[in-house]
Amino acid sequence: MAKRGAFIVIEGLDRSGKTTQTGRLLEQLEQRDRPVQLFKFPDRTTAIGKMIDGYLRSQSDLDDRAIHLLFSANRWEIASTITNLLASGTTVLADRYAFSGIAFSASKVTAGLTYEWCRSPEIGLPAPDLTVFLDIDPEKARERGGYGDERYEKEEVQKRVRGVFDRIGKEMGSRAGESESGGRWVTVDAGHEKDIVQGIIWRLVEPLMNGVENPLMRLWE
Ligand code: 2DT
């Protein structure tokens, strides 16, 4: 049977070098002539994505549950594209995914959304084969040049978000690094030099580069 493409997610806190590393990984795969496609969540180009963009730039206010569901819908509208690409043998990279969705909403203090509530709309999305979480101490992240102006780009928020990511990682990794429906979750110290982080990521991705045999799973199903 032909192998399907691998689904690789890069998650991380602000200033963890997530976008840089995702770009470098994309380049490395392309240089090896691997069919690969990168998705970035939120995808701000769709109709739903435009609503999310307005919210993040504080141009609009939305109910906490409504925006959470929009972020999730923004993944669901692309889910079948991801599934089809994987089936055709393309490696799919995602810059942020369902885990950001849970981490950012569940860490909103005043909203009072439970972890379980935040997770439920994400259940059933295509499950990554590997999630790399780029971890950085929010204080160190601030020293890297400060946060931007968007909603959530504040040290206090980042600290709480890191706490939720930690919980997700523990749950995903609870079966000896391999969860039944969520693939592997690996935390990488993003405090290292860029080239070192890139090398660590590449060692994790290389075995998946030529595709995977096991069927695509759905998140938390
Ligand atoms: P970027 O800075 O990476 O564009 O992210 N976010 C993201 C959520 O709150 N929920 C989600 O589902 C996703 C994917 C994280 C913009 C901000 O949006 C947050 C930061």
UniProtKB/TrEMBL annotation:
Residues 10-170 form the Thymidylate kinase-like domain. GO terms for molecular function: ATP binding; dTMP kinase activity; nucleoside diphosphate kinase activity. GO terms for cellular component: cytosol; nucleus. Pathway: Pyrimidine metabolism; dTTP biosynthesis. The keyword Nucleotide-binding applies. Pfam families: Thymidylate_kin. Keywords: ATP-binding, Kinase, Nucleotide biosynthesis, Nucleotide-binding, Transferase. Its EC number is 2.7.4.9. CDD domains: TMPK. The keyword ATP-binding applies. NCBIfam families: DTMP_kinase. This is Thymidylate kinase. It comes from Piloderma croceum (strain F 1598).
